Amino acid sequence: MNIYSWNMLFRNREPDRAFEFIARSDFDIFCLQEVPKHFLKRLQTLPGSLAYARDREMLVNRIREEHFLVVLSKHPIETQGDISFADYWPLLPNRTKWFIRLAPSRFFNRLHNRSALFVDLALPSGLMRVFNLHLILANPNIRFGEFEAAMVERDPARPTIVCGDFNILESPHITPLNWIMGGSTSDALLYRRERTRIEQRFMEHELVNTLPGAITHPLSRSQLDHILVSRHFTLDHAEVIPDLYGSDHHPVLANV
Questions:
Q1: What letter would DSSP give residue 201?
Q2: What does pTM read for this prediction?
Q3: Rounded distance between C-alpha atoms, residue 157 and residue 147, angstroms
Q4: Dihedrals φ, ψ of 130, to 5°?
Q5: Which of 95, 172, 188, 252 has the most crowded Cβ, counting Cβ within 10 A?
Q6: What is the dihedral of CA 249, 48, 131, 33, to 10 degrees?
Q7: 31-75 confidence digits (pLDDT tens)
Q8: Domains of the chain, with CATH numbers?
């Protein structure tokens, strides 16, 4: 199976190229984050199965926008569900709230009604669960909590794929953002600690990161985007696709 994951960016600069890339990809499963409503309507014209859930709501130029998580599949979608994430705003210190209020809204914004998506795909061998996650760009403790909240919906005995933008920061020029967004000083200075901790969580859940050490987001120089697979799969190939297709994230691909 060819599995893709991509944060296409809600203000994607090249929507036609982005759509053509998705439509022409030889995918079995394609997970997308930050899909705007007008683009969701285009995706619904593609053959195969599609499931979606709300990614988040936010104000853009004083207009409330809704963005979506989407799973495209060549296999039938048997069931789907969403996982509501708790409101992160009360967990943030005042320095973070003021930063978000004063920063340009296209970069930092208070997010509302956030959730994750999971689907069960009907394969000849049985059901497989696919998660599509977009973890909050706040601080590591909140991200870890959201990851664990999603994994509550996982059955370890069932083949599982976990895709999405996890927003794990792991480069010294970007981890100060962890402190700005409510983390501790050590969250900023110990720039590899978050990666070490999240990889430990993957191991505890018997999930394999198919792209260890990859850079999927040029600005942060970090692996924000992930495709995790359970022990039921053997990884044949994984890559970061060089073209951004109008996003600030590279698409990622894993073949199992």
A1: H
A2: 0.96
A3: 19
A4: -120, 125
A5: 252
A6: 30
A7: 999 999 999 999 999 999 999 999 999 987 777 899 999 999 999
A8: 2-255 (3.60.10.10)
